[in-house]
Amino acid sequence: MGKPVIIKAKKDYDGVYEPERMNWLRLQYYRYQVTLGPYVFTSHEAFVFNTIVLLLLFLIGWAVKSIVVKLTPPLWNLVLYIPATVLYLVQKNA
């Protein structure tokens, strides 16, 4: 009896195309294009659509900033009471 013959099989996936990795920003832009559909627009339509989207994002950001600025002083005043409250509770329990 001889030694068994070992045949190395060729990998089936050697010729398969592997796309390069996308960075995070390109992936987000791709998702935006596919989700909202501006890739099917002409260049002028895409410009108008993207301008409207950017304007809406700016206005939403401005509204959020305005709300945060108005809420920050009352929240900051509450934060100032926390150390005094903790100190009071520690002294009371000691």
Automatic annotation (TrEMBL):
Keyword flag S-adenosyl-L-methionine: no
Lineage: superkingdom: Eukaryota
Keyword terms, alphabetized: Endoplasmic reticulum, Membrane, Transferase, Transmembrane, Transmembrane helix
InterPro entries: Ser_palmitoyltrfase_ssu-like (IPR024512)
Gene Ontology CC terms, in alphabetical order: endoplasmic reticulum membrane
Gene Ontology MF, one: transferase activity
Localization per Swiss-Prot or TrEMBL: Endoplasmic reticulum membrane
Transmembrane regions: 47-68, 74-90
Topology of the protein relative to the lipid bilayer: Multi-pass membrane protein
Record carries keyword Membrane: yes
Protein name per the record: Serine palmitoyl transferase A subunit
